[in-house]
Batch of 4 targets.
Target 1
Amino acid sequence: MSDIKKVHQRGDLVTEPRHAASVVRSIWYEASSSEDRELFRKRIAERISSPVFLTYSVVSDDEKIVDNIEAHLHGLVEIKRYAFHRSVKKIENAVLEAVQVYGYYHPQIKITLDDPQDLQNPLVHVEVKCGDPVIIENLDVDYGIDDEVLEEIRQKEKADKVLSGEVFNHVNYENFKSDVLSTLLSRGYIKAKIAVNEVYIYKEENRADIKIAISPGKRHRISSITYSGFEESHNEARKLNHIKEGDFYDTQRIAELSQDLYQSGYFQMADVNIDDKTDSDDSVPMTINLARRPNTILDVGIGFSTDEGPRFQFTEKNPWINDYGHNFNSTGKISAKNTFVRGNYVIPRENPINDFYQISPRYEHKDNNDTLYDSFVISGHYITRIHGAWDKDIFLEYGYDDFVQGDNKGWSSLLMPGVTLSRTHIQKSADPAWGYRVSATVKASLEEIISRERIIYTDVVLKALMSPTVDSRLLLRFEQGAIFFGSMNIIPPRLRFFSGGDNTIRGYGFEQIAPKDSTGRLQGGRFMTVGSAELQLPVMESMRLATFVDMGLVTNDYAKDRDIKVGTGLGIRYISPVGPIRLDLGVGIKEKHIPVRIHFGIGPGL
C-alpha cells in the first residue's frame, strides 16, 4: 500500500476531489492479476497527472446522420480517457438520440477505443448501422382553412416530406409545423395555432401515426388603407397599390407593394404597416407612410480606360417634377474619344413603374479607330409591362448623323418607328442558378417622310442560364442582327453591326470585328451572327472557374464571307453580394497574330 500512499501525496496534480480514489480503484481491477507492479504505478501516474478527454470518429451507412451524431457527442460533458468504460452507455444514448431524429429506432451501435492499451489515446470509434427507419403510416391533419390556402399547405407537406409512406424525420416534422404556421400567418390567419400535435411511434413495427389539428381562427381582411406624408404623391401611390379594402391580409402582396413604392423612385421612405395586434377577429388596418426623395440626386465619377483614356461619368435624377408624378433622369459619359449624353422625361400612365410614356433626347460623339461621327437622336416611347407576358417598347425616333466610317463619309436623316419586345425571367438571387432573356427589336425608316432612304433594322438576342449541378453554371448566348435595304453610304455607324469585346467575342478588342473597306479600315456590316457557350465549375467557396467559346461573323454577304471569328479562354467568377464579378482572359484563334484580351464585368450575364 506504500505505492498508493505516494499517489495521494501528489495532490497538486489531482483535478477533482475523488479523482485519485476512482482512478486507483479502476486500475486496481485492471491490474489485479498482473505481477508487473511497475506498470501498475505507471498507469496510475499517467491517469492522474495528465487526464485526456475523449474524441470521436463516426461512420455510418447513412452519411446524412453523421453530422448530427457528432453534434450530440460534442454536446456531452467532456469525458476523460480513464472514464471511458463507465461512459459507454452515456455515449450510446447520445448516438441513439441523434439517429432517432432521422427515424431510426433500431440502430446497431458499436463503440470502441482505437487502442485500449494506450492511456494517452482518446480516440473513440463509433460505428452505426441504421437499420430500417420508421415510416409514416397514417397522417391525420385537420386544417379548417380555405381551399385556396389549403392547396399551398399541401405543397408544404410534399416539400417537408410529411406524407404517408415517407420516413418519419423529426427535423422535417418540426419544419413542417413551422411552415404551416408561417403560411397561415402570411395568408391572413393571424391568430392560428396548433391545437393538437400528437405523434405515435410504434418502434417494434417501425411505423408512426401523426395527428395534427389547427385552430386557424378567422382569416383577416384589410379593413382600411390610410396614406400619410408626401400628400402630392398619394394618387401615384394608389396606382402602385393593388391591395383594396376588404382584400385578405397577405404578407407577400404587402411586401410587393413596399418594393414597388421604393422602385418608383419617388420615395425616400415607404413603410407599409399592418396593425396585426388589433383586437378585431377578422380585420386589420393598413397604413402607408411616405417621405419624398430629394428634388435632385446627382452621382458623378471619374475613371480611366485603356481604350478611352480619362473619362467623366454622371447620372442625375429629378424623381418628382409635378403632382402628376412626372420625373426626369439623365446619364452621360464624357471622354476624349467618346461622349454620350441621354435624358429621359417620364410621364406615368396606369402604373408609374410598368406603364408610362417617355421622351428621350440623346447626343453621341464617337472617335474610335476607324469610326468618327456625331449623332443627334430624339425618340418618344410608350413602354408597358402590364399587358401580357412581354415587355413592350413602342417608339418613334428621329436621328441625324454626320459620320466618317473608314473611307465612307456621309450623313443621314432617318425617321424610324419601331418596337422592342423583351422577356426576362431570372431567379432572384445575387448568384442566380437559372434564367433567360429574349429581346427582339424591329424598326424601319419612313422614306417618304424626312428619311433619305428606306432602311429596315432588326436585332434578336437570346440568353439562357442553367445549372447542370447545384454549384455549376452554363450560360448560352445567341444574337442575330440584320439591316435590309439602304446603301452603306446612308446607313449611320450607330446602326451598323460590329463585334468583339466582353459581350460578344472575347479575345478581340471592342467592336474590332467587321467587314473592311479597300483601305483595310473597318466598315461595319449589314449582318451579324454571334453565339457563345460558357461553363462555370466551382473551385472553392464563392468562386468558379469558367471556360468559354465565342464565335461569330459580321458581314455584308453571307454567301461571299465565311470568315468566322473564334475566341476562347478561361475566366474566374467571384460570387459577391452585388452579383458575380467576371474576369476573363480571352484568346482569338485562327489569326496570324493571335490577339489576347482581358475582360472584366459584373452581373450574371443575362
Target 2
Amino acid sequence: MAEVKLKRDFNAAVAETYDVIVIGGGIVGAGIARDATLRGLRTLLLEKEDFSCGTTSRSSRLIHGGLRYLKQLDLGLVYQDLREREILLSIAPHLVSPLAFVIPVSRSSPLQRAALPLGLLLYDLLFFRKSLPSHRRLSRSETLDFEPGLEPKGLAGSYLYYDCQVPFAERLCLENALSAAEHGATVLNHARVTGLLRDGSSVSGVQVQDAISGENYQVKARIVVNATGHWVESVTDMLGKAARPMIRRTKGIHLLTPQVSRHAVVLFALSDGRVFFVIPWQGYSLIGTTDTDYAGNLDAVEANAADVNYLLTEARRIFPAINANDIFYTSAGLRALAYSSRKPTNVSRSHKLVDHERKDGVKGFVSVLGGKITAYRAVAEQAVDLICGKLGAQAKCSTARTPLPGTPSVPESAVQQAAQEQGLSVEIVTHLSALYGSRYVQVLDIAKRNPQGTRHLCPHGKDILAQVQHAVENEGALTVGDFMLRRSMAGMNSCQGLDALDSVAGEMGRLLGWSAAEQQRQQDAYRTRVAMRVQFKSGL
C-alpha cells in the first residue's frame, strides 16, 4: 500500500498556475478538490485554518437521508442523500457504518402514530437499492428491552429503522484532502485567502497568506471556487459588488454526556416540534441539534445557556436521567443554508451553485451554498461538472467508485495479530483501525521505531504518542488543535484533551522545532479554544 502524505511546501505551491483553486477545506471544499484532481485538473486547495475545523467538525456525525425532509415533500433531497449514503458505505466503509435508530411513539400522539409508518415506508422505498434493513414496529415491551433508559410513562411502542454514522467526520474530510494530494493536488492548510486577483472582468487567482510564517503570495488559476461554508459571503465581498444575502446562517449545538442510550433515538421537541437525536458516540451520548438564526462572530461560535436548556428540557422528557451537571462539553457550528426567509427548520438543506459570470458578470468565479455532509460528494460532482464545462474539459466524475485512502476496513483477525505483534491491547488497535482504516499500519510502524510511541496520551482515551508523529509527518498537523481536534480523538474525550496537552505539545514541539515560548503559546491557544465549549455553564 502506497503511503499517502500531506507535504506542505508553500513556496513551491504558489509558483504553479492552476486550473482550479478551491477556497475552503471543509468537507465540500475537500470533496471538490478531490473530484477535480481525479478528472485531471491542476488543483490547489486552500484552508485558512485546518481541514474540517468549521461546520464539518460540529455536526451530528450522521450520514442519513433526512427522514424529516419527507414532511417537507423534499423527495429529491432525500433520494440524493439515500443514494450518497450507499456510495459512502462503499468508498469509506472504515469511516461510515450502519446505525439503528429508535423513534419512541407516545399514546398521546395519534397523528404521529398514523404518520410515522407511512413516512418510514416511503423512506424504505424511495431508494430501492439500499443495503440497510427496512423499518419495523416494536411493541412497548420490545422498545423498553431495546432501550431500557426510556421514560416508560405514556410509551406506546416505537419504530426501528437504519441510517449511518460517521463517528470521525473530521477524518472523512481529511481523507478527501489526502486523496486529492495523492492524485496530484496541492493541499495547504493555514493558508488564508486575503483577496481575489482580477484580470478585467475575470477572477484570475487569489492573494494568500501563509498563516504560519506570515508571508503573503499571489497564485494564478483559471477558475476560483468559493466553498467556504458560512464564510462564503466574506469571500464574495472581495468581488466588491453589493449583493443581497446569499446564505442563511443557523446555529446548531450538541451536548456530550455520559451514554444514556444503546442506540440512536429520534425525539420530537414538545416546544416547537423540531426533530433531534440522542446518539451513542465513542462511549458517550451526543445530543442535538438546535436550529436558530445566527448573526454573531463567525470565528467564535459557542453554545449559550438557552441552547443547552432547550436540549436538556426536551431530552429529559424521554431520558429523565440526563442532568445538567453531566454535560462534559458542548459543540456549536453554523449551517450555511441557501438564503430563504422561511423558519430556520423549514429552510431547505439542498445546495446551490452560483456562477458569478451569470450572476454578477464576473468570469472565473463560482460559489457553493448550502448542502449536507451526507451529500458532499454529489455537491462536489455537480460543482466540478460546472467547472469542467467552463474550462472545456470532458473528464467524467469517478469519486463514486474510487475508494478513500483508508479503505478497506480492517478485519478483526488483522487487528488481533497487529496487537499481539505490537504489544498493544486489541482495544487500542481497534481504535486506530477505526480512525485510520487500513492506514493504521503507518501509526504502528512509527510506534515500532519510537520507544515511547505506544504510550497513552490520556487516561480518558485510546490515542497513543505515535499518532502525533504520524499527524505531523503525514497529515499536515501544524498546531496542537490540529492534532487534538481533527487528527485524533484526544480532544473529544470528556477531559477535552487537557490531560494530554503537555505530552502532545512536547512531541509536536520536538517534531516541528518549536521554542519553549511557542510551545507555551500553542498550549494557551488550545486551552482558550476548548474553554468555549463549557462557556455555557456561566449562564446556567
Target 3
Amino acid sequence: MKPTEVPSYNQMILQSIQEHWFLDSMSDYGVFTLQYKDVARIIEKMHILFEHAGIQPGDKIALCGRNLSRWGAAFMSILTYGAVAVPILHEFHPSQVHDLVNHSESKLLFVGDKVWPGLNADEMPELLGVISLVDYSLLVCRSEKLGYARENLNRLFGEKFPSRFLPKYLKYYEDKPDELAVLNYTSGTTSNSKGVMIPYRALWSNCDFAEHVMGHAVKTGCEVLSMLPMAHMYGMAFEFTYEFLVGAHVNFLTKMASPTILMKALAEVKPVVLIVVPLIIEKVVRKAVLPRIQDPKVRMLMNVPIIGDRIRKRICDGLTEALGGNFYEVIIGGAALNQEIEQLLHDIGFRYTVGYGATECAPIIAYNDWKDQVVGSCGKCVIHQELRIDSPDPEHVAGEILTRGLNVMLGYYKNEEATKEAIDEDGWYHTGDLGVIKNGNLFIKGRSKTMLLGANGQNIYPEEIEDKLSNMTLVSECLVVQKGDKLVGLVYPDQEQVKKLRLSASDVESIMEQNRKEINPNLPAYAQLSSIKVMENEFEKTPKKSIKRYLYQNIDL
C-alpha cells in the first residue's frame, strides 16, 4: 500500500468512539472505569483547554506518568486535536524528564502523581501549563486564558454542546499519513535517548497488522490487561491503541506488577491476548514450571510415549491457567527470550510466539502466529514492511537487519546526522541488530553495537553467551563485556537463594568460578570467559527491562 492510500487515523478513533459509545473502554484495574462516551467527553474538554492555551496543530504536548485511564484519554485528546503526543517514561530521572520536555518544545505537560513531586517547573520554562493525570487539574498555569478555561470548563463544555452530548456531534482533526503524530523517546539501552518521529501512517500500519493477526481474537467488548508502559511503543500499540480502535476494554495495571498482583489480575480479567517482555514469562516459568519437572522420575516419564504427552499437557494447562486461561496466545517481545525457556514452552505445546520490533518502526517488524512459531526465531516480515539482511549470504552469515515500509519513522527529532545513519537513501531503516533469515524466519544474532571482535577477528555475540550463563547456578542477571582480548562475565546473583542457602561472598565466588568452568566447554575457544565478576547490585535497566549495556562497558574489573 502507498502512504497516500493510508486512511485517517483520527477518523478511526472517531468511528470507534461513535460505534462503542456505551461500552467500557479503559479501567484502572480495581479502581474505576471509563466508557467510550466518557473518553469522548474528556477529549472535548481537553480540546477546550488546548484551544484556550493557544495550542496549534503540530504543537507538542508531553505525558509523563504510570499507566492510567486518564493517561490514555489524554493521549487520544492530543492526537484528535492535531497536536503531537510526547510520551515520556515515568521511570526516567527528573532531570531527564526536564530535558525531554524542553528538547521536544512541549507546550503542555500531563503528569502523574508519583512523578510530579520530583519535578521542578522552573526547569521547564517554556511550558504554558502542567496538568494532573489524577483529575486534570492545573498544577502550573502560565496562561491566563488556560486558567480561565480550566476554571470554567464545565460551562464552556455546555456552551459547545448546548442540547445533548451525542456521538454525531463529534469532529476530530483529519490527519495526513506522513504527518507527525507521536514523538517517542527511546529508552536508551546502548546510548542516550533519541526522539523518534512516528507518523500517523506508522500508527495505522501497526494497528492494521494487529487486525490481520489478532482480529479473530481481539474483538469488540473483549478484555485486555495492560502491563507494559504505554510510553513505550510496544505497549502503546498492542495493549492500548489497537484495542481502543476495535472497541475492546483495556484494564491498566496501575501498580508495580508483583507476582501476587499480576496473578490476581490475570485470574479476574482473563485477557484474550497477553503482550509481555521475556522477563515476565521467564519468571513465571522458573517459579511455576521448572520445579515441577526437576524430579528425575518426572523427567523419565516425560520420555515415555503417551504418558509423557499427558504430563506435558498437564504442565501446559497449569501454566495457561496461571496466566488467566483465556488468551489466544502470549506474544513475547522487547528483548531476547532465553533459549532454554523457549524450548520448554515449545515442548509442552504452550501458545506463545516471539516478535521483533523497534521504536523506530512503531514498533513491529517481524511476527509469526503461535502455530507457526519456529524455536529461536522471531517471526517473518509483517504486512506493509520489507525485510532483508545486509550480508553476502543472509541465510548463513549474520548481517545487519534492514527494513522499510509504512512503519518506519520520519527520523530523529533535531538530529539529522543520526537520521542519515539510521535511514539510507533507499528508505531502508538500519536496525543495528544482526541476524539471518532462514525459510523466511528471522533469527537474531545480536546487536551490531554490542558485537565483540575476537583476537583473530572472530565475531562474538555476547547475547549468546549470556543466554547460556543465565541458566547457571545462582545467576539472576548477567552481562558479558570485553577487556582487552579477554571476555568477562558480570553476574548479579539470585539473592533469595543466597540467603536461603546462607552463602558467604566467597561461597558465591566459588560457585561462579564453577559456572565458568562448566560453561566454557560449550563455547568456542575465542568466546570463552576468562573470569566472572560478582555484582553487588542489580544492573540498571530501561523500563523495558533491558540492561543498559553502555553503563558497564568500562567497568573496573
Target 4
Amino acid sequence: MTFANPPLPDEGAPVQTTQFLTERYGPSYRWYVTITGMVGVVSMVLAMTTVNVAVPDVMGAFGIGQDKAQWMSSAYTATMTAGMLINAWVSGILGERRTFVGALFFFSLGALLGGTAATEDTLILARMLQGFSAGIAQPLVMAIIFTVFPPERRGSAMGVFGLGVVFAPGIGPTLGGLMIEYFSWHYVFYISLPFCVLAAALGMVFMPTRRIPRVIPPFDWLGFGLLCVALAGLMTGIADGQREGWASGVIVTRLCVGAGAGVAFVLWELHTPRAMLDIRIFANLEFSAAALIAFIFGAGMMGSTYVMPVFVQTSIGFTPLLAGLMMMPSGIMLAFIFPLAGRMADMIPASTMIIGGLLLFALGFAFMCTADVDTTFWTLVGMVMISRLGLGFINPSLNASSLKALPPDRLRQGAGVANFMRQLGGAFGINLMVAFFEVRTRFHADALAATQDWGNRSASRLLTLVEQLMQRSGLPFQQQKAGAYDYLGVMVQAQAQTLAFSDTFIIVGVLGLVALVPAAMLSRSQRRARSAAWR
C-alpha cells in the first residue's frame, strides 16, 4: 500500500487569484479590493500621524526631550522602510491574503503594546513593530490595486489609494487630540484598532491568495542586515548629535558605520543575484526622477506632519485637541481633491501636476514660517490647507508615473521601491528636522541671551516689572530677583524655539522647491516618450 504525501496547508482549497476573484465578483471586484486595501492603509497611516499631537504629553510623562520623543514617529517610518523590502519575499511565500491579515495582526499587537507602555523604550519598541508591519502591507496593497485596474484607470485608482496616504494625516491628529482631551495619550494608540479589524475581515474575503510553496525561496539576509545597520547608525547619530556633540567619538562612529553600511548595501545589491532592492531599476530615468521626488515628498510630508502639531502646542499654546482640529479642514479638503486629482492624473501629464503641487506645498510653508504666538487659529488652518492642497495633486500622479515607466513584470518591485523611497525620505525627514530644530534653538537661544544685559532697556524693564509683581504677591525679597531672571530665561527659550520652528518651516518649503529639479527631469523624459510614441 502506498501513501500520498501529506497535503500542504490549503492544498485542497481553490487558489483564489485576482482572476478567480474577478470572475466571482465581476468588474466590481477591483473596487472591493481597493476599498479593502485602503481601509488597511488608513489604519496604518492613522497610527503614523495620531501620535504627533501626543509628543508634548509623552515628553512630560517620561521626562524626555525632543530627541527621544521623535522616535515615536521616526522609528515607525524607519522600520516601515525595512519592512517594505521584505514584503515581496513574505507575500511570495504566504500569499497576499495571509500577508495582509498577518501584518494587520502584528500591527494591532503593537498598538496594544504602545497603549500600555510604561517606559519610553517599550513605546519605541511598539512603534517599531507597527512600522515593520505597515511596511510589509502597504506595497502589497499598492501593487494589487495597480494590477486589477486597466492602464487608463490607474490614475483614478491611485487617487483612491492616496486617500489613505494623505487624507489620514489630516484626520489623525484630530482623533488623537480627542483621545488626549477626554482620556489620555495612551488611548491615541487604540484609534487604529477598529480599522484593523474591518480591514482584516474584508481581506479574508477579497484579498487573493495562493498555496504555500514546498520550497522556501532564498532571501537576501545580508542586504537586509546592511540596510538595518545603515538606518540605525545614521538615524541614531543624527538624533543624538546635538546632545552628545556632533564631533564626539560616539556620534562620528555611528555616522561612519551607518554611511559605510549604506554604501556596502548598494554595492551588495548590485552584486548579488538575489537582490532585495533592484538598484538597476534606477537606470530607468523616468522612474529615477519619480523615486527622487518620492524621497523629497516623503521628507517634506512626514517632517511637516510631525513638526506642525508640536509647534502650535509648545510655541502658541494650543491644546492637543485644538492642534488636531487645525489639521482637520485640510483632511476634509483632500477628501474632495483626491478623486478629482486622480481623474486629472489620467488626462494631464503627471509632471505638470507634480510641479504645480510642489509649488503649492512650498507656498504653504513660506506662509507658515511667519507664524508666531499672535497668529490666529484660522490663519494657521489656511496655511496648512495650502500646503496640503499641493500634496493632494502630487500623490496620485507620483504613484502612477513611477509605475507607468516600468514593464508589467517589474511592477511589484517598482511599487516596493517607490514606497521605500517615500518612507525612507519620511524617516530621515523627521530625524533631520528635529535635529535641525535643536541646533537652531541653541543658536537663537545663545544669540538672544547675549543681548540680555542692563544696556537692553526692554530686558531691564521686564525684570523690574516682574520683580514688582512678585513683591506684590508677597514673595521674599531674596526670591524676587531670582524669579525675575528665571522668567526672563523662559521667555528667551520660548522665543528661541519660535524662531527655530520658523527656520524649520523654511527648510520644509525649500525641500518642495528642490523637488522641482527631478520633476523637470520627469517632464522632459515624459515628453520624449510621447514624441517617440507619435512617431
